[in-house]
Design brief:
It contains five helices and seven strands. It is an alpha/beta fold and 144 residues long. The chain has a single domain, classed as Rossmann fold (3-Layer(aba) Sandwich). The strands form two sheets. The chain has a five-stranded parallel beta sheet. Strands 4-6 form a two-stranded antiparallel ribbon. The longest helix is centred in the C-terminal third of the chain and has 16 residues. The structure holds iron/sulfur cluster. Iron/sulfur cluster binds next to helix 2 and helix 4.
């Protein structure tokens, strides 16, 4: 890896911009994700910034099971996100479909469609668990 690539990777890991995606869960995880992004928990202290476009994102924060309707959209958004990109599955639904498993419209977990770097279990996980999971992932990617 060249010096410039290393610098870009260091900058992205030091100030990761995140995109929040829901593929059809109950919205419990989304409320906790948004809670984690409020000033009370202050994810910005890790340089985390919420963005509205995959083209500006480094990390995809995903919630909900993959449904037949959202499968292609998730794949398209994943492909629109520039490398190096990281995917975090938040909640039991992203791991296996959770309580929606075996529903007629549910394909299963997130890793059946796109590669996932980390899962944060829970139904829903608390904001503290989400922050811990994201911070641990970033530390491990930095080699810290
Ligand atoms: S894991 Fe639980 S809280 Fe999160 S979207 Fe699924 S059912 Fe809702």
């Amino acid at each position: 890896m060249g010096v410039l690539s290393k610098l870009v990777t260091w900058a992205r890991l030091s100030s990761p911009w995140v995109l929040h995606l829901n593929s059809g869960g109950c919205n419990g995880c989304d409320i906790e994700i948004l809670d984690a992004l409020t000033p009370r928990y202050d994810l910005e202290r890790f340089g985390v910034l919420l963005k509205g476009s995959p083209r500006h994102a480094d990390v995809l924060l995903c919630s909900g099971p993959i449904t037949k309707q959202t499968k292609k959209r998730f794949l398209r958004i994943y492909n629109q996100t520039p490398d190096p990109k990281f995917v975090v599955g938040i909640g039991a639904c992203t791991m296996s479909g959770g309580v929606f498993r075996e529903c007629y419209n549910v394909e299963g977990g997130l890793d059946g469609v796109i590669p996932v770097n980390a899962f944060i279990p829970g139904c829903p996980p608390k904001p503290e668990a989400i922050i811990h999971g994201v911070a641990t992932l970033l530390a491990s990617l930095k080699g810290g």
